């Protein structure tokens, strides 16, 4: 009766698994899905907008609705129509990519289709202290390069890009670099006066970590939950969690772009009230969210 109730839970790795190399470039399973997602998005938008018509078809209507909705959302969140139009290409790109990347992890085969290969043993594992019998039990072998490997490990071919901390950290760094760019563009070199306060530097790093860890933690945790539910329960139960992950995937993409809009808006309009944005009256349409956050004692004031 024992084998009847045996449970097989897939190995869950916090780090992405390497699939192959292109020269010195390491390609992981999350890199592979990232490239597939980018190509799929590009093909969809190119084919949907290649032959625009007055009476749009379904795909053209979907693209137009997405663009119009995100533009209106960007304007209302930033409270600055002129700035919103400048940053809109960034916002729509981030939202569409993050949403599609989040949903890619829920597709059939992601995490369940694998290849068998020898995986390097992490340096933190003291393999040298294991006895030959223990190494055999753990399927640890030593190759000609002197390194130890786990033999015959199952490595998933596909992994959601945002279940990789490297991807979410890269997105957060891109956003924070652009926040500084728009801050300098609106306020000139006076923008750097903000960083005379050590708290401003700490906040910059905390925002970067918050953006990256929030997205990574929610997507990785959600995929682990769905995987374990499929292994432990009947199909109906994990299906409910799957629908929840569809909702959370959308929310996480929305939260990421909302914070991006607010960070850029604050950088471009709040400093000392004397930047170019203030002089031109561009911040007359401040949103309630931006007003509330701008009241925080993070920037200088006259």
Explained architecture:
- The protein is mainly α and 302 residues long.
- The protein has two domains: 18-110 and 159-294, no CATH class; 114-156, no CATH class.
- Helix content is 58%, strand content 9%.
- The protein has a three-stranded antiparallel beta sheet with strand order 3-5-4. Strands 1-2 form a two-stranded antiparallel sheet.
- A hairpin with a 2-residue loop joins strand 1 and strand 2 (25-28).
- It is globular.
- The model is unreliable at 1-7 and 272-302 (pLDDT under 50).
Features of this protein?
single chain, 302 residues, 3-stranded antiparallel sheet, 5 strands, disordered N terminus
Write the layout of secondary structure elements.
Layout: E1 18-22, E2 25-28, H1 29-49, H2 58-78, H3 81-104, E3 114-120, H4 132-137, E4 140-142, E5 148-156, H5 165-187, H6 198-232, H7 236-269, H8 276-280, H9 288-294
Antiparallel strand pairs: 1-2, 3-5, 4-5
Helix pairs in contact: 1-3, 2-3, 3-7, 5-6, 5-7, 6-7
Give the tally of structural domains.
2
Structural class: mainly alpha
Order of helices and strands: EEHHHEHEEHHHHH
Task: Name the average pLDDT.
Answer: 80
Rg over CA atoms, rounded to whole Å, is: 24 Å
Anisotropy-based shape: globular
Helix content: 55-70%
Unreliable segments of 5+ consecutive residues: 1-7, 272-302
**How is the largest sheet built, in terms of strand order?**
3-5-4
User: How many DSSP H or I helices?
Assistant: 9
State the major sheet: 3 strands, antiparallel
Strand content: 5-15%
Distance between the termini: 77 Å
Strand count: 5
